[in-house]
UniProtKB/TrEMBL annotation:
Keyword entries, A-Z: Heme, Iron, Metal-binding
Protein name as catalogued: Cytochrome P450
Family annotation (PANTHER family): CYTOCHROME P450 FAMILY PROTEIN, EXPRESSED, CYTOCHROME P450, FAMILY 76, SUBFAMILY C, POLYPEPTIDE 5-RELATED
Pfam families: p450 (PF00067)
Family under the similarity heading: Belongs to the cytochrome P450 family.
UniProt GO molecular function: heme binding; iron ion binding; monooxygenase activity; oxidoreductase activity, acting on paired donors, with incorporation or reduction of molecular oxygen
Co-factor(s): heme
InterPro entries in the cross-refs: Cyt_P450 (IPR001128), Cyt_P450_E_grp-I (IPR002401), Cyt_P450_sf (IPR036396)
The organism's place on the tree of life at top rank: Eukaryota
Positions of heme binding: 79
Amino acid sequence: MHPAVPLLLPRRAGSDTDLCGFNVPEGSQVLVNVWAIGRDPSIWENPNSFMPERFLGSEIDVKGRDFGLIPFGAGRRICSGLPLANRMLYLMLGSLINSFDWKLEGGISPKEMNMEEKFGLTVQMAEPLQAVPVVI
């Protein structure tokens, strides 16, 4: 929902290319809008809703082969930390869930949370999410 950087690093077209009906001349600079890919209704049902369950039973992976979902980039420039992230995620998330109960700062309920975005060089939430751990 919130990519760290909305546009990937610029690329140059190595040859004349037809991309979705548009002619991209050789040497053109191309920017990939990851933010827009993640909100494309032709790819995602309810693209503006956070629904991680949409990936259950899906063939889509995060390893850069499915260009509808590229949180770690793709191709030769894929994130070198991907294998470590895949191994550590379960351990870290499991430790946080088992060690604490969580609440939103200021007593806000999840339904009242502001999910608007603030655009800049990076995409940020308009009001930062602040979850407070409560010792079990």
